[in-house]
């Protein structure tokens, strides 16, 4: 069941951000934790445009990065693990036990692997929603339909969807503003209005990450190595 949830996650949309229950308890905007169901429409004002440009610059300037993540699935289950990103197109989500799941992009294709079920599902990276923020030249104003964007005292937020006609679902991202812009959380809302939240901790620049992290290994070989 958890593997099916992950497949729905990556097939529908990934990388959006939001505030969870803890943030609501701290007085953050409660509506931010809910599914985006309406579009603001109209042109962005100068302040909103500046925020989108700042967030675009953040992705374009992101180097090798790593950190910890907690994923909350639509059924409330929590999974934890490590995340590695090698801009512009490679990433790795490594889930901690008891989960035996790994999501890897080698820059061309994305693999979703489950060692418990012995499954290895792959898509072209261009067929996934990761394409919005994993391009060599990210341009959210050009490539995304902005549904909402703004700021609080200490955070930026943006909700968007890919302009591509085959795109499905919506994406919300939350960023810290100080001491520098930093991706903190995201919520993805799929075409069935199911939300998956991911929170990042200790997400920092990394020394040059080993290219081997981003090369999928056949599931059968992984099982033999255990």
Characterization of this structure:
There is one protein chain. By secondary structure, this protein is an alpha+beta fold. It has a single domain (2-225), classed as Clam (outer membrane lipoprotein receptor (LolB), chain A). It is 21% helix and 37% strand. It has helices at residues 2-12, 21-25, 46-61, 131-134, 140-143, 219-225; strands at residues 65-72, 78-86, 90-95, 101-106, 109-114, 119-124, 144-151, 155-162, 170-176, 182-189, 195-205. An 11-stranded antiparallel sheet has the order 6-5-4-3-2-1-11-10-9-8-7. Mean pLDDT is 80; it is low at 1-41.
Compact summary:
The chain is an alpha+beta fold. It has helices spanning 2-12, 21-25, 46-61, 131-134, 140-143, 219-225; strands spanning 65-72, 78-86, 90-95, 101-106, 109-114, 119-124, 144-151, 155-162, 170-176, 182-189, 195-205. 21% of the residues lie in helices and 37% in strands.
| CATH top level class name | Mainly Beta
First and last CA, distance:
23 Å
Low-confidence stretches: 1-41
Structural class: alpha+beta
Strand portion: 35-45%
Mean pLDDT: 80
SSE layout and pairings?
Layout: H1 2-12, H2 21-25, H3 46-61, E1 65-72, E2 78-86, E3 90-95, E4 101-106, E5 109-114, E6 119-124, H4 131-134, H5 140-143, E7 144-151, E8 155-162, E9 170-176, E10 182-189, E11 195-205, H6 219-225
Antiparallel strand pairs: 1-2, 1-11, 2-3, 3-4, 4-5, 5-6, 7-8, 8-9, 9-10, 10-11
